[in-house]
Amino acid sequence: xxxxxxxxxxxxxxxxxxxxxxxxxxxxxxxxxxxxxxxxxxxxxxxxxxxxxxxxxxxxxxxxxxxxxxxxxxxxxxxxxxxxxxxxxxxxxxxxxxxxxxxxxxxxxxxxxxxxxxxxxxxxxxxxxxxxxxxxxxxxxxxxxxxxxxxxxxxxxxxxxxxxxxxxxxxxxxxxxxxxxxxxxxxxxxxxxxxxxxxxxxxxxxxxxxxxxxxxxxxxxxxxxxxxxxxxxxxxxxxxxxxxxxxxxxxxxxxxxxxxxxxxxxxxxxxxxxxxxxxxxxxxxxxxxxxxxxxx
Length: 296
Hints:
This protein is an all-alpha fold. The protein is built from ten helices and two strands; from the N terminus they run αααααααββααα. It has a two-stranded antiparallel ribbon with strand order 1-2. Helix 4 runs antiparallel to helix 5, helix 5 packs parallel to helix 9 and helix 7 runs antiparallel to helix 8. The longest helix has 32 residues. The chain is globular and about 50 Å long.
């Protein structure tokens, strides 16, 4: 029988140590992000692989899973962390879903008005003008979401049963099979499933699970905002989220995209801190991406 991992300064066991130096924490967060971005760029440069995924699976399923799920989990596992300590836990699912659906009731209509507005104005979401509009929309969403979810109880659960991991893996396999089966007759299926089950969850695992957790351990969470304990880790992780979009091989160098995804990251980071898990932010993130994929 092994001893449980030592608790950190924010109560999340295993990843890092209490009182860890802030420069080291930022360097580790940047290193994990760098590995993920390098994976995306390297695989993106292998055109034969990209073509194979599109032809066989209907989309970049394997590269997204590798970059946003496997790479971060391997890194934190090598550091001795448990997935549950990163907010990867499904216990307390009712509360996570209550938080997520409440947040979607706010941010869904607001973003649902912002994107058509950009279309009317002829502004791309990647442009600076489009980015300002979307950044304002997400910024407006944050306090309203906070007011509605502040009294929903959070959880400190930090376990991830093996059965849950198996179920999640089976869901991904089933989704890839559905994507492959409909790649020609209904390519929208792949786009929606990929956004909902891989891109949203993967980005939340990396930015809110790994990076925000690590930075919270180093910087602490001294601010109480709408019932959530937050700190500079929340802000830095959101800025890195925007930076990743700026450096993404999918649309490299678009500052407007980086701007509004940074502000969206603040919303997702708040949901992670308030609920105690990445499940709520994953649901919100994934649904917003899936809706966007459906209409584009």
